[in-house]
Amino acid sequence: ADTVKLGLVAELSGAGAPAGTNWRDGAKLAVAEVNAAGGILGKKVEMPEYDTQTDPQVSRALVQKAIDEGVIAIIGTVYSGSTMVNMLVAKQNSIPQFVGSEAPAIVEKGNPFVYRTSSGAQKGVPALTPYFKDTLKAKKVGVAWVNNEFGKGGRNVFIAEMKKAGIDVVVDAASEQAQTDYAADVAKIKSANPDAVFVYMNQEESARFLIEAKKQALPMPLVGEVTLTEAKVIELAGNAADGAIAHVGVTATATEVPGIAAFAKSFEDTFKRKPTHDAIKGYVGVWATKYVTDKVGKVDGEAFAKTMHGLCLKAADHPKILLDTCWDDRGEMSRPSFMVQVKGGSPVVIGTVPAN
Amino acid sequence: MLELRNIHGGYGKITILNGVSFAIPKPSITTVIGPNGAGKSTVFKAIFGLLNIQSGQVLLEGQDVTRQSPRQMIGHGVTYVPQGRNVVPQLSVYHNLELGGITAQDQVKLRKRIDAVMDQFPMLREFRDRKAIELSGGQQKQLEVARALLLDPKLILIDEPSIGLSPNLVQEVFRTLLRLRDQGVSVLMVEQNAKAALAMSDYGLVLELGQTRMHERADRLLADPRVGQLFLGGHVAPSAQGATSPHAG
Amino acid sequence: MSDPVLSIRNIEKSFGGIRAVRGVSFDVHKGEVLGLIGPNGSGKSTLFNCILGQLAPDAGEVSVNGRSVAGMRASQMNRLGVGRTFQQLSVFPKMSVLDNIILAGQEHHGTMLSRLFGAPDAGLTGEAERMIAFFRLTHLRDELAGSLSYGQQKLVDAAMAFMAGPSLVLLDEPAGGVNLTMLSHFKERLSAYNAEHGTTFVVIEHNMEFVMSLCTRIIVLAEGAVIAEGSPDEIRANQTVIDAYLGG
Amino acid sequence: MRGLSVRDVWRSVAIALLLVAAILLPIGQKNYIIYVLTSWLIFTIAAMGLNLTLGYAGQISLAQASFMAIGAYVTALLTLAGWHWLAALPPALIISFVVGLILGYPALRVKGHFLAFVTLAFNTLVFLVLRNEDWLTGGTYGLSGMPRPDFGLFSTDKHLPFYYFTLGITVIAALALWGIVRSPWGRAFKALRENPVRAESLGVDTRRVTLLAFAIGSVYGGLAGALITPLVQFIEPGSFGLAHSLRILLMVVVGGAGYFFGPFIGAAVVILLPEVLRFTEGYYLIIYSALVIVMLVFVPSGLIGVWGRLKAKVWPKQQVRTDMAEGAGLQ
Amino acid sequence: MSQFLQVFLSGLATGAVYALVAIGFTLVWQAAQTVNFAQGEFVMVPAFFVLIGMHWLGLSFWVALLFGFAVSIVVLGLLFKKLIVEPILPHGGITLIIATMALGILLKESAKEFYGAEAQPFPAMFPGDQIDVFGAAVSLRDLLNLVISLGIVILLTLFLNRTRTGRCMQATAQNPGVAEILGVDVKRMVLYTFLINAALAALASFLITPVYLAKFSNGETLGLIAFIAAIVGGFNQIRGALVGGLLIGVLDNLTATYVTAQYRAALPLVLLIVIILVRPQGIMGTSEGRAV
Ligand SMILES: Nc1ncnc2c1ncn2[C@@H]1O[C@H](COP(=O)(O)OP(=O)(O)OP(=O)(O)O)[C@@H](O)[C@H]1O
Ligand SMILES: Nc1ncnc2c1ncn2[C@@H]1O[C@H](COP(=O)(O)OP(=O)(O)OP(=O)(O)O)[C@@H](O)[C@H]1O
Ligand SMILES: [Mg+2]
Ligand SMILES: [Mg+2]
């Protein structure tokens, strides 16, 4: 055939739809660019979409379906619960898979075919430890997290990190996905009065949390990982987002990086909205597939896996990878990251964290 | 007053009425009798627009009212008291009555009439604010009968009013119907309590197997031995106990 | 006279402010056909419901064959041999007439297990068909009970009360809406059944012809209390009853 | 005894044909299609159970997915501990039965929407326990790697044998249910649905019947769960949330509640239709839900009623009731 | 103490919103004896109509609000009644319930497909100024929600019980056959019900979306909680919806603050199950009367 297929398996409906659709749109943009740049191995790229409905069981079936239909790589899924299951299927069939999930367990299962598009919580969250310890000089902290597999993963890593760093976790506030009233969570944190709070939730939950925190005048710094300072959250939370701090792997606001600025612009032109972190991940996933497949020179999952492990792509040679990016022998990814704070309604980079 | 011409109709695909024709003059009381399942209630539903009429015509004072909706029939001055229980369960007795006059224009007059029926059935006044569902079977029936009298009807269709009513109240209802007839109202009634009903009626109508069998002056029907045997509680000859034709005579 | 089959003592039942039944007591003896009459709302149906466990009486005692049935559920009473009908049509509308009748008998045949693994009709088709034939419903055997006419449903309802071979039957207005010819047939059969099996009946009815010719004794309720008791002739002549109930 | 009527013969032929179709259908299909067909069978079993509880006995339950969860987790934990699937099945079914009995108790006190609420709440509680008690259930990460049963010569590791294995179980489950619904129990269930007060007065112990309706329905849920475990080889709480109970309810109603074959059709529509529509990508759920609404508008008693409608269209015969056509008594 | 007051008052404010949605459930129940499982989506959608008015048609906020209200009445009231309720209602509650579930999916997916999966900010009708109540922060908006819910409960109760039209609506729901033979315009009564319901849903939408944000999936949780609130309150009493809503809002917050956050969704449910088993007609409901 003169086309190659990538299988976009993602959360296009259900609770994960915001993440999934951004992931998809980022990937779509990349596919268009890849095709404009001559495709993969000189063949045109097609990307059929498979909606998991945010249901791991469905996602597993759909990865199977995509493979049945002859895709050379799987792009997705974003929710860790889904990825944990469906990566088994890709593995059985030796199909490379770029995932947007950040749960630590994913790269711990010894699956050679799964690769992250952002670093996992066990890398991202620890990057924050020095910030809590040295910059904020916190003695006691709180954690507010959403009780799903994403939130729980981050929260577990955070608690372990704080223990290592000798910082007390004085309040541990779990909230439900799609919760609307954060009065209880904020009130609890307020009365425990930690020096800083780690906030680990999805977008609009983060926004609602910030709004309530402002209402109750929560005095301490709120620190998050990626989501808390995303453009969407700021748009939703309005001035309640001011002062929020986050550690961000790649951010569309890091416009001093030329690739990111170009990506953000063409995403906004195409989809009439600002790209999110998930959009960048999907974008990177497709481009990485292209770069690596072209490097291998043929469609071969085993060879792909071999090439991936220990691979570093320099932004200078591979501009669409946006930042210098490396994958280790488990598929974990590392690249430089940033500390960002919301000031006057927009995120400002307040520091750079080197790749770890 | 009312005329049915060769009505055919039934439920879904099933035909129950196989050509019912009769006419009742104004003002008069006509009692319909017939075995269980003969189609008496079905005829009433056909008149009142509640039945799928396959063919035939219903004429009211010469005007074709076939397949008109119940609301339209009420507009023409027809009211209907169906068989069984028909109250709005969670509304009070008073509000049930008031619903009986929902199409009335003149509220003051309606209130007066409600007062009048309450005089006639004192139970209604006593239980004015109770939910209809809490009433006893006969009390609910009183409520229904009273409700049908509120609108100044030209024609009353009343399906077995005696079910559940105590004997003195049955007499009261019959007296009311007679009074109404004298005021110019026509009554079409189904009654199993046939002797008493025919005795006060002007005409009798025998319905069987979905067809009109006899239509006569009530006193003649009462005197007819065949009618007596079949419908007024006479003995059924043993030979007539056929399984497929239960009413053979 | 033998011990009473049914004995009720000082039954009381109020709904909110309404005292529907006020201390009613009477006995019913084996083989009796007792009529229970009274104006609308005098508490007859409520009394039945209290006897049969559909309502819990506020006070008083009911015993069947000398055994107190306080707190017993209607199904348990039925297994003791007490059958009943309701004033309101009470069939299973989306089941065939035959199924209605079989259902009425099946719980008296075999055990839970035999009913699961045994014959689908619990061996009752024959008996049910005889019952159906008796009520002249054979042509309607496979129709849905809900599509029958009022009188026909009333007959199905009555038939169901007999399927379990009860020793005591409480009938609430069995005659309402039933064609007179059918009714006299029913009445004869009821008397015959009573004579043959010694079955006891308590009948609520507003059809005086039916009550007077069928019952051996009549109790009259008014406003929840017994106001008269006696043979049909005595009741017919009782002025209180005429004023309260029978009318002039 | 009544002999076999023409209708019975037709029905047997139709069932045999369907069975043959079910056997031939997956041959030569890709893995994914076989997987979907297998889930169709499994959900049919779950829907059959709910059909008994809701369709026959008239007790609304929004908790069928939680019984699937119970069946699935029990089988998963036991097979992960090394038990054979066949050995893990009885405990799974027994626990479902007992929990079903317990869930039936509220139904003795409340009806209709209150019962809907209690069962809904139960479903949510089961979900929360599965999610929060991660020492046992693996929490949000779920359990994975459960083996598929191996019967010596017949291993179900591949998708096709597993499909046949599931088909066999479905047939057995359907036969058992068929036995129940046409036994006196089935009649008692319907009586409970139609007129519980009258049923009680006829000696039907409606309490017991209600509890049984829940318990048996739950066993079918448990069985479906026990099959999901080896099919997906991964389970997590989210797959047994309220939405899934509603989906099973949808299957029952779309197929035709109270009709024996309703669940087969309903599960087919709910599981297979979206697959057929997937080519429309973003719009498939929109089209799917619109189709469901259209279906309910035109065949409100479920798709199983379509046959009767078609027949009436093809042979538009006016029927005269036998008793109405008979000769006259009076003339 | 101020912590208790804070979560209590916030719970009341959230509960008022639940109540507003729950009223829709009771209303539809009282007037059509069915449950609209798309009720949550009915509250999600009007906000999107307003956003469409603002962003696609370029209307100003207040005009867009009117536009959204009108479109909601037509789509969620008129069309819903004509195309779905009317054909299915005669075939019984469960079928209609299922149809409304499907409708919920339809609305949700349409909103997502045509407006995107991400939450959108939504302007508030009233200022969010805060007042300090004994150390607890309460916004003016919260108070207004409470007042409006209360007002609607009173108005609707009066309408249903004190006006002839209201009683006709009840009669239609309780016994449509009888209503019809008495000459009640049954179709129109059903229409009124659904128009009022749509209006309430739109109002609820405009009140809560500034806080909840406009998102396609908002209806899921909201609908469910409101359903629970309606049941707890008794379903056959409009005022029950208010009590049920407030109760759930407060219980949820108190559980999360003082008992367990992980099981915050569970404790209210357990409590409510107990309430219902003890008082099967709900807290405010009245029993439906004689069964035999
Ligand atoms: N809803 C229905 N669906 C189908 N068949 C029906 C329906 N209602 C009545 N029938 C049938 O139509 C026939 C006539 O019924 P109808 O109610 O008119 O009888 P009736 O003469 O009023 O009898 P009754 O004296 O018992 O009231 C009966 O055989 C009955 O079984
Ligand atoms: N569930 C209830 N709630 C309130 N009142 C009730 C209830 N049931 C019965 N009543 C009242 O109790 C009284 C007796 O009712 P019951 O049904 O026993 O009368 P009845 O003698 O059977 O009358 P009928 O001859 O009309 O059937 C009536 O006044 C009735 O309104
Ligand atoms: Mg009739
Ligand atoms: Mg009575």
UniProtKB/TrEMBL annotation, chain B:
Source organism of the structure: Chelatococcus asaccharovorans
Record SUPFAM superfamilies: P-loop containing nucleoside triphosphate hydrolases (SSF52540)
The molecular function GO annotations come to: ATP binding; ATP hydrolysis activity; branched-chain amino acid transmembrane transporter activity
Q: What is this protein called?
A: Amino acid/amide ABC transporter ATP-binding protein 2 (HAAT family)
Name its GO BP terms in alphabetical order.
L-amino acid transport
Q: Give residue ranges for domain ABC transporter.
A: 2-234
- What are the alphabetically sorted keywords of the record? Amino-acid transport, ATP-binding, Nucleotide-binding, Transport
Q: Which family does it belong to?
A: Belongs to the ABC transporter superfamily.
A Pfam family it matches: ABC_tran
Q: Does the keyword Nucleotide-binding apply?
A: yes
Tell me the classification of the organism that encodes this protein.
Bacteria, Pseudomonadati, Pseudomonadota, Alphaproteobacteria, Hyphomicrobiales
> Does the keyword Membrane belong to this entry?
no
* Top-rank taxon, per record: Bacteria
From TrEMBL, chain C:
One short Pfam name that applies is ABC_tran
**Start and end of every ABC transporter domain?**
6-248
* Record keywords: ATP-binding, Nucleotide-binding, Transport
InterPro entries reported in the protein's UniProt record: AAA+_ATPase, ABC_AA/LPS_Transport, ABC_transporter-like_ATP-bd, BCA_ABC_TP_C, P-loop_NTPase
Molecular-function annotations in GO: ATP binding; ATP hydrolysis activity
Keyword ATP-binding in the entry? The reply is yes
Protein name in the entry: Amino acid/amide ABC transporter ATP-binding protein 1 (HAAT family)
TrEMBL record, chain D:
Highest taxon listed in the record's lineage: Bacteria
Which InterPro entries does the protein's record reference? ABC_transp_permease, LivM-like
> Which spans are transmembrane here?
9-27, 33-54, 66-86, 92-108, 113-130, 162-181, 209-228, 248-273, 285-307
The molecule here is called Amino acid/amide ABC transporter membrane protein 2 (HAAT family)
Q: Which PANTHER family match?
A: HIGH-AFFINITY BRANCHED-CHAIN AMINO ACID TRANSPORT SYSTEM PERMEASE, HIGH-AFFINITY BRANCHED-CHAIN AMINO ACID TRANSPORT SYSTEM PERMEASE PROTEIN LIVM
Q: Which Pfam families match?
A: BPD_transp_2
Q: Which organism is it from?
A: Chelatococcus asaccharovorans
Q: Name one GO cellular component term.
A: plasma membrane
Molecular function GO labels = branched-chain amino acid transmembrane transporter activity
Could you tell me the membrane topology recorded for this protein?
A: Multi-pass membrane protein
Entry keywords, A to Z = Cell membrane, Membrane, Transmembrane, Transmembrane helix
Q: Where in the cell is it found?
A: Cell membrane
**Electron transport is among the record's keywords:** no
Q: What is its main location?
A: membrane
UniProtKB/TrEMBL annotation, chain E:
Signal peptide extent: none
One GO BP annotation is: amino acid transport
The family annotation for this protein states: Belongs to the binding-protein-dependent transport system permease family. LivHM subfamily.
Q: How does it sit in the membrane?
A: Multi-pass membrane protein
Which Pfam families did the record assign?
Answer: BPD_transp_2
Which keywords accompany this UniProt record? Answer: Amino-acid transport, Cell membrane, Membrane, Transmembrane, Transmembrane helix, Transport
For the keyword Cell membrane, the answer is: yes
Provide the protein name. Answer: Amino acid/amide ABC transporter membrane protein 1 (HAAT family)
Name the InterPro entries for this protein: ABC_transp_permease, BCAA_transport_permease
Segments traversing the membrane: 43-76, 88-107, 143-160, 190-213, 225-251, 263-282
- Name a GO molecular-function annotation: transmembrane transporter activity
* A GO CC term assigned to this protein in UniProt: plasma membrane
Q: Where in the cell is it found?
A: Cell membrane
